[in-house]
Amino acid sequence: MRVSIGLLACLTLCGQSAFVMAQSAPQNHCRTVPVRSNASDWPSKHAWDLFVSLNHPAKDKSMGRGVADCSKPFGAAGTTSVWETWRNARTEVYLSDGREPPLWDDTTLPDEKAAQVPELPIKVPAGGPLIFFSPEDGVFHNAGGFGETRLNRSTYEFVRSQCLFSIEGQKRYAAAVEAGKKPLIEFPPDSIEVKAAWLDFDKPEANKPPIPADKRGTYYTAEFQGKKFGLIALHVLTKDLKNWFWATFRHKDAPTEDFGGHEPDNYGPPKEVTGTLWDNYRLGGTQTDFTSPTGERTILSDHYVEFGFQRSSCITCHATASISREITVPPAGRPFTSLPNGQAKAVCSITPGEGDDLDFCKQQLGEDAFKPGTGTLVLERGVPDPKWFQKDGKPFYLQTDFVWSIPFRGRSEAAQPQSRCIW
């Protein structure tokens, strides 16, 4: 067989070119891709895959929100996590005047600048870096029920397209469902919402000393008005399952209360986090259903996010997120369309407490939920009671598919809505 000199030369040059191109091509560091089936088949692995993909370095929001920068390795110093480029629920989704928020990639609204991965070991330059986050609703102040909430594109665009960003829009939607004009609320399967909790390094918790200087470099860190804050917990909610997939992560130094009743971590931190800042975080647990196969309620919570009601269930609490065709205007506080005391009912149904708390829980659940003459529940409920969503014995409150940011953060419309939001 004869091979021409020209062909040999071409093969040689082409081979060299391919080698040069391979050498110069940027490395792809986005190797972790969550697999939806793992949500039920291997919850711990799915949680860690989500953790790695959501905390991968992000591109600047001007280049697109929620876009990973695959040219940078996981945990690279000076980078911001993907989830922090999502829409901020407080300032970029549920606006103070109830108007429709802009398109996904718009950056005109005043979102706080994101936090960053610090150098390891920590290096504190004079004056500190200008790193911001969401201080108004994300910092722990000795009470639970808080968190910097962010929505990914799928979650955001559903809220926006269905006009659920305002109280009046929620009322119209619930009325449209009752009239048969709209379906029940169900988010797309790629929807994700996260809730982040931050600690003030100098005042982390009542009667607790400041976080030592040599420990501060182990946190994903932010700075605001001269103060430094560390990410202490991260709740992740994904629509990978019908009733969502639930996972909570915490810093390794965070207090823990193990009440059992949740899926333990049987996977462990993956190799991607080894040697990075994120090696300092642990999976607190996962949740995939209201009850265990034996019928016992499941429990999942975080010391800080659920401070004061740690023995509770994420999925049960979020199941009470709802709207209705009536707007309630309380003597104090803001108007709402949701089930009154829904979260309290969920907590009471598992841990009713004592004294005044017990009396309040008996008012919420009814005396028949307790053993006669005691403060002991007949059954610790994981599954919501259908009667919670009724009024005058008939279905009334419409669930928002476990998304609490809708009834919690919606505000009244200051102007007439767009015609597409009227059904």
Summarize the structure.
The chain has 423 residues and is an alpha+beta fold. It is built from 12 helices and 11 strands.
Please tell me about this protein's structure.
There is one protein chain. The chain is α+β, with helices and mostly antiparallel strands and 423 residues long. It has one domain. The chain has helices spanning 5-24, 38-41, 43-54, 89-93, 135-138, 153-161, 167-178, 213-216, 314-319, 342-348, 355-365, 405-409, and strands spanning 87-88, 148-151, 192-200, 221-224, 227-238, 245-251, 281-287, 322-323, 390-391, 394-395, 398-399. The strands form 3 sheets. Strands 1, 2, 3, 4, 5, 6 and 7 form a 7-stranded antiparallel β-sheet that branches. A two-stranded antiparallel sheet has the order 8-11. Strands 9-10 form a two-stranded antiparallel sheet. Strand 9 (390-391) and strand 10 (394-395) form a beta hairpin. Mean pLDDT is 89; it is low at 1-5, 7-11, 18-22 and 120-132.
